[in-house]
Amino acid sequence: MDFREVLLVLHILLAIIWAGGVLFIGWGVFPAFRKMAFVQQRTFLQALMQWSHKFLTAAGGGVVITGVLLGTVFGPISQWQDMITTRYGLIWITALVIGIVTLLWGTVVGFRQSARLFSKVTLWKQADAGNTKPLTKALAAVVLLESAEGVGFAALVVLMVLF
Q: Which residue, 149, 118, 150, 148, is CA-closest to 135?
């Protein structure tokens, strides 16, 4: 196995960790934590986000870096012109932009919005006291905002199938 193949395996593994981790939190953990009391939900989600944010951001960054290397140093893009004059180059640059935007969206926009929600202790205490509507609305907004990452992942999968 040559170095390019090792890099490709690493790229795929990091993509699985990044996308799989984000999707598991959204579709696996998020619905399951709803069984807890609201104040416990806040504490749990805050701890989960603080731990997973660094790990998943690093995996996403690794996907972008290995993707750049696979397309350029160890791939067919040898000059700037290749990115706009070849089918591979157009797909590659599109995937690069979508990957970077998806990573930045999750690490900057989504994470900050979630952190803001978790810092609003009174919202969670109100929900524990029976007034769940404001928290439910805020959680729905975060879920909608975070779903942009899922769209980015889906677009990346479509582009990878096109290669």
A: 118
Distance CA 117, CA 10 (A): 34
pLDDT tens digits in sequence order for the chain, 163 residues long = 899 999 999 999 999 999 999 999 888 888 888 888 888 889 998 999 889 999 999 999 999 999 999 999 999 999 999 999 999 999 999 999 999 999 999 999 999 999 999 999 999 999 999 999 999 999 999 989 989 999 999 999 999 898 7
Domain count of the fold of the chain = 1
pTM over 0.85: yes
Residue with tokens 């009174």, as numbered in its chain: 122
Note whether 62 and 9 are within 8 A (CB). no
